[in-house]
Write a structure and sequence with these properties.
2 copies of one chain form a homodimer. With 370 residues, chain A is of the alpha/beta class. The first copy, chain A, is built from 15 helices and 16 strands. The first copy, chain A, has 2 domains: 4-266, Queuine tRNA-ribosyltransferase-like (TIM Barrel), CATH 3.20.20.105; 267-370, no CATH class. Chain A has helices spanning 46-51, 61-66, 70-75, 79-83, 95-101, 127-137, 155-175, 193-206, 222-233, 250-258, 268-274, 306-310, 313-321, 326-351, 355-365; strands at 4-9, 16-22, 25-29, 31-33, 57-59, 89-91, 103-107, 111-115, 122-126, 141-143, 182-187, 210-213, 242-244, 263-265, 277-278, 285-286. An 8-stranded parallel beta sheet of chain A has the order 4-14-13-12-11-10-6-5. The first copy, chain A, has a 3-stranded antiparallel beta sheet with strand order 1-2-3. Chain A has a 3-stranded antiparallel beta sheet with strand order 7-8-9. Chains A and B meet through helix 1, helix 4, helix 13 and helix 14 of A and helix 1, helix 4, helix 13 and helix 14 of B. Chains A, B: It is an enzyme of class 2 (transferase).
């Protein structure tokens, strides 16, 4: 049996309903992964994360390699024990953060050298090191080390990054040493569809357990993003999971599922939650607004999350107003539950064969996915 | 049936095991109340607080009157609904904070005027206002407005404060308007035992549902504190609950229970938890210490709290090191559970008749109560 099984497909678009089997159990796809950067989804305990319906979480190799270090995580028994999360985990490769958070001091075909954002220490990272670190962290799914380009990028810069991403993917495949740990390749190429085709072809030729589309949601906008995802997803093997990295808003997710994407991660529900921004089916809600002072309404009518079942908007606004941790905690719980309810609805619609129609309506009309 | 029932007493000391009946259910005493200053025990959801074993929490009138205001709490359905805490709540009167947090602009026999610590606004507070605010907040137990003196205080200052505390207690009793809400009187007098006797006599003469000992744990030290509590508790009616305000360390609590005290509140378990300090039976633990980097031990061996059941010291140290909210959350959970386990042990020892012996041993030997 393969580690990925498509159990239903929408006849009118690329959407599929699947199950990804990992060393820590199955993941129902399309799936959204909350981001647990430093080994914790900010503000939540694992049982609170589980209660939102999340079946898999993401942790950042870049952050964990700097603090506490892969060897420390390994010594205490691996990432699952460290995070107290007994279900599937995916680690990224650190590539994205090296290019977005660090002062780069060198980049060449071999790898990169950068100054840690924590203490400025010079750190070396390349395909072999990133793979070895992820082997030691012990997530269920690990990612190839890739070169991420900003948007917009010069054509030569993009081409060079794609060439390196392909070469590094080959090296990651070679360096991968841990049984039972799935390794995903990453397709880069900005919004250049020809480059995406070339990169996809080469990455698929190397052969991975799954395929990611990287380098999007970096400022190109919804239309370019969707066009690139539609183009790229169609080039990836139907029998392997497809993961759109770092995306995104609910509308982005619905559009990408339509194009055949199975997995997502994004900081929006958690980061926005900490900033008093709530996702609701009736559109965004800013909980610091004084209009909520004595509101007895829940954040979102009909939501079954712990915050909505127990707290009024008035109380949550007060917690933010007083800088009480409970404000960010409750909105993080709600936003993650909102995303998981969206994914559950998507999965149900695909199973029932009505996804394409539902998605078109949702994208055209519903504030909640915009 | 009275609202307070003593169900067991230790034959060798003043310790008693009781049940305080409130509008939101019974409280098993001796009881420790976690402090939920602004309507939230910092960092925890109500279900996490409940899981520590807490049967009653405290909220601060001073903070809630300034933000969001008693009228807002009242409009959204009262403090229980606001905090999403369906069990007993006690509010203090604001007296202590007026004297410790504010810039006082006037104090006389009528009441006080102070500058809010939030925005500097001039606020007026007196016996009638403090009682009315607490009536509107709707806690199960409310406190008289009293004058708190610093330590040390001049004899005339202390005498004046005691006289005002007595006069204000009489006015609070008169102003109290809410059925089903218990009103406790407060005995002041610093460490002057004669003044404590005088104050206790007058406060008992007015007659309240319970009696508090205020003005301690302000720098007088363990010995003075215990001497004053032993002296004062003995002067209070045996058929009413006794509450030692703002105390304290485990050793203070054990000594005060021995003197016949039934209720406690203190910020130590929560505040220390946020500062990476854990209470354990083996003594204090500072989780920022690098000695814990790759420790696979729980905070405290044998502890049944969520943090100890799921996380290693190494992971918790990492969360503090990265300023992740999960560090303070987990140590708050642990410390509150530590306090509740202490109270459960105290209650059991009294029930079994062995409290005095247990307490003497604990006070003499055990790091965990020091």
């Amino acid at each position: 049996m393969s580690h990925f099984e498509v159990i239903a497909s929408d006849p009118h678009c690329g959407a599929r309903r699947g199950v990804l089997t990992t060393a820590h159990g199955p993941v129902q796809t399309p799936a959204f992964m909350p981001v647990g950067t430093a080994g914790t989804v900010k503000g939540l305990t694992p049982d609170q994360i589980e209660a939102t319906g999340a079946g898999i979480v993401l942790a950042n190799t870049y952050h964990l390699m700097l603090r506490p270090g892969a060897e420390v995580v390994e010594r205490v028994g691996g990432l699952h024990r460290f995070m107290a999360w007994d279900r599937p985990i995916l680690t990224d490769s650190g590539g994205y953060q090296v290019f977005s958070l660090s002062a780069l001091t060198r980049i060449d075909d071999e790898g990169v050298e950068f100054a840690s954002h924590v203490d400025g220490a010079k750190v070396h990272l390349n395909a072999e090191i990133a793979t070895n670190i992820q082997n030691r962290l012990g997530a269920d799914v690990i990612m190839c080390f890739d070169e991420c380009t900003p948007f917009p990028a010069e054509p030569e810069r993009l081409e060079k990054a794609v060439a390196r991403t392909i070469a590094w993917a080959r090296r990651c495949r070679q360096a991968h040493r841990r049984d039972g740990q799935l390794l995903f390749g990453i397709v880069q190429g900005g919004i250049d569809l020809a480059l995406r085709s070339h990169c996809a072809e080469e990455i698929v030729r190397i052969g991975f357990d799954g395929y990611a589309i990287g380098g999007l949601s970096v400022g190109e906008g919804h239309e370019h993003m969707v066009r690139t995802v539609e183009h790229t997803a169609a080039l990836l093997p139907a029998d392997r999971p497809r993961y759109l990295m770092g995306v995104g808003m609910p509308a982005d997710i619905v559009a990408a599922v339509r194009a055949g994407v199975d997995m997502f991660d994004c900081v929006l529900p958690t980061r926005n939650g900490r900033n008093a921004f709530a996702f609701t089916r009736q559109g965004p809600l800013r909980l610091r607004n004084s209009v909520h002072i004595d509101s007895t309404e829940p954040i979102e009518d009909g939501c079954d999350c712990y915050a909505c079942r127990n707290f009024t908007r008035g109380a949550i606004r007060h917690f933010f107003n007083c800088s009480e941790m409970l404000g960010p905690i409750l909105l993080t719980v709600h936003n993650l539950r909102f995303y998981q309810r969206l994914m559950a609805e998507i999965r149900l619609q695909i199973e029932q064969g009505g996804f394409d129609c539902w998605a078109a309506t949702a994208l055209a009309r519903d504030d909640s996915v915009r």
